[in-house]
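Sample entry (158 residues):
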Amino acid sequence: MKISQNTKTKRISKILGACSLLVVLGLSATACGMVESFGRQTADAWSVTYEVSVTGGTVNGIDDVKYLEAPTRGEVSSETAVGEVATTNDPAKKRSATWQETVMVTAEEEAGVSAAPRAGATATCRVLLDGVKEIAAVTGEPGKPVECAVSTPAFAKK
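Predicted structure, serialized as C-alpha cells:
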C-alpha cells in the first residue's frame, strides 16, 4: 500500500500542531509559576525578634524552645524546634537572663515563640518587629511554660 504525499503532509501538520500546542501550554504553565514565584519573592516580610527572659530560680537556660519562621520570603510560617538553649545574663539585674532569635516572617502570617523556664524561674516572652516594636508579650507562672503568638501586621500602603 502506498501512502500519498497529501496524507503524509496532513499527518506531519497534525503532529506539528500538537507539538506547538504542547509548547504553548508548557510556556503558559512556566509563566504562571514564574509569576507566583516572583509574587512570593517580593512579598512583604518582617524581621521578627523573639525574646524570652527568665527571672528568679535557675536562669542559665530555657527548655523546649520553639518558634515560627518563614522558610523563605512569602512562605507561610513553620515551626522550628530548638529545644534547650543557653541564656545571656543581664548584668543590670540579678538572677535575670535573656535568649533572643531573629527570623523572617511574612507580613500577615503567624509569629510565635514558646519556652519552658527551669526550676523556680519565671519566663516572659516577647515578639518584636524589626527588633523594636513589641506586638506580643506574655509572662508565665513560675516554672510553667510561656507562649506568645500573634499575626504580623500588613505593611502600610504608600
